Amino acid sequence: MILIDPKQEFRSAESVDLSQLLEHGESVQATELVENVYNWFQRHQQEYIGVLNGKKFVGLVSRGQVGFLLGARFGLAIYGRQPIGSHLIENSLHVSSSTPLLAVLNVALSRPGDLFYDDIALVDETSEYLGIITVPTLVQWQSQLIQEKTRQAEAHKMALEEKNQHLFRSLNELRQSRGRYEILFENSALGVALLNARGEMETSNRRLESLLGLEPNPEPGGQGLRDLSAYMVAKERPAFLRLLQNHEENPKDTTARTSEFMLQLPDRGPRLFKFFSNWVNETGQICVLLNDITEQRVLEHRLVQKEKSALLDSLVGGIAHEINNKLAPIVGYTDLLLLEIASLKEVEVLGPYCETIREAAMESAKIIRQLLQLSRPLARELVVLDVRDLFNEVRALVTFRLRASNCQVETIFPSDPARIYADATQIKQVLINLIFNALDAMEHAPEKRLRLTVAADQGQVTFRVADTGHGIKPENLNRIFDPFFTTKSPDRGTGLGLSVCLSIVKSHYGEIVVESVAGAGTEFIITLPRASEEQVARHVEAGRRTEASSDRAALALPASGRLRILIADDEAFITGMVQEALRRSLPCLVERVESGLRAVTRLQQADFDFVISDVRMAGMDGFAVFEWVLKNQPHLAGRFLFITGDAGSPDLNEKLESMSVPVLRKPFEIEALLQMCHKLLTSR
User: Fold this and answer.
1) Which of 99, 133, 167 is the last residue of a domain?
2) Taking the model in full, what pTM does it have?
3) Per DSSP, what are the bridge partners of residue 664?
4) In terms of CB atoms within 10 Å, which of 268, 274, 460, 473 comes out highest?
5) Are 324 and 665 in contact (CB under 8 A)?
6) Contact 237, 247 (CB under 8 A)
7) Domain that holds residue 96
8) Omega cis (within 30) before 218
9) Shortest CA distance to 581 belongs to which of 682, 643, 662, 673?
10) Domain stops at, among 261, 292, 323
């Protein structure tokens, strides 16, 4: 933590009450839990808040810091219950209310790195917390001080010419004034420039030259003035020049204005800058302060995307649950119908109809699962995958887009598997991004042809996505993977798609390159390590164990010769379908109930050999039913089966794993239901 000595003397005529600069006085106690502080930030607009021990200030925390803690995997579980006092901003700055403003500016705005962006806390002489002063407020005051120092220098110069008798004193005062001006100007953490209305830099500091990658400022009368507007991307240059012209046309308005512009820098590509500008009446110039906020905007965008993903997860998950519930009886009754017509003469006619209905329902459920995998930020799960299968699954997902674009698709796949060890969801995301980019590039092409290629050798798998679109200009080829770089209009692209693809491929130890000819098309080439023999062997062995587990052993029937099975689900057509399937295949008596509470009542009234329960039910859900069984009839815990239409949210999966209860996801095949029941009835 940094503390400024309020007794430090600065030769300055400025006297500003720092309490007038406070943005807010909100605070939390150091013992407050991290998750409560996070909730506070969600309800308020402030970016920083003071942390106190009683009334004494101990440090600062920020919205971004708390969001980073809880945004990580298991962040809420690890840090949510910890006191906020354990997660203070390192080297946070606080000042006494008696500290001169210039001293505050000199220390606060010269902090290195990310510390510069941290707001500062104001305390009284007894270290009691008063509130927060923001960095933009200090920057505005710094700009005003620069203007004042410039004005003072000019006044001293005029006095020198008019009063030669005061030469020594005037020169001394001028030297002191210019010294303070240079401290503020040259040592500022922001790039500072004085511009004319045409955008030419008449003066600039070293920080600005560093930000823009410029050579040292030429001497007056040398190579001429450098044009700041020349660094603007073409579409934003007119807006920047209008801003400068507006300053010149309204010289009485000296308030600072805040703008954001994208600059195209040599060797650095496009960078987003925040501009603080105001008119200097005394010199007829425009003072501009620049700050590179590219990385800050990337982080903000990721936070927004995370919030959107959470909302999408909730909406899509609820819809998927309802659709899966409706698909379950379609699949189940189709299987039962096939059994009914197996001995009829019409089986050759009706059988294919039933198979088509069943296949369509299962494909619908598969598409829903794939959409959910893309909508929710799941933990990475590495498995052995065949890239050919991934391409086919992605084509099914984007079928509508392919048809709407009237694009011909050509696939060149090897006959043998092209296996990789990767996360299926992330690789699908890469393929979808590349296919969508290709379709956008071919929107106005006379010939629309998409070619998907897979090849494999001993050490790696290569897959390509090629189009016949407008191509990429040579000067843009080195920047297409940069964040925010896009040639699309703002409503059609954010410039983050390819940077995400690059991140995913690199995390899988692969490479992605692009080959393009302007006006002729583009091809993206992704190379990933091929799955090792050991990884493939483990994959095959897992499949064999799954097949072996499906072999049925003889059932151990109770003395009555019939099993008694209880089914709990709030969808009557599902319990009816399950009841009919079990009656046909097992010697059993099946009883149906519509709620978890009713299931517990029947378990208290009668003895059952097996329980099948939906997970999500109004009132008492399936988890509560299982917990009741564990406590009151533990012998049934090993003969308990969950069925659910929920597509598998992280919370649900985690809870199911903790209970170690098998689960059958709707819609399911009758054979899968029977195998699961038979396995539980014979092995436990």
Assistant:
1) 133
2) 0.39
3) 643
4) 274
5) yes
6) no
7) 2-133
8) no
9) 673
10) 292
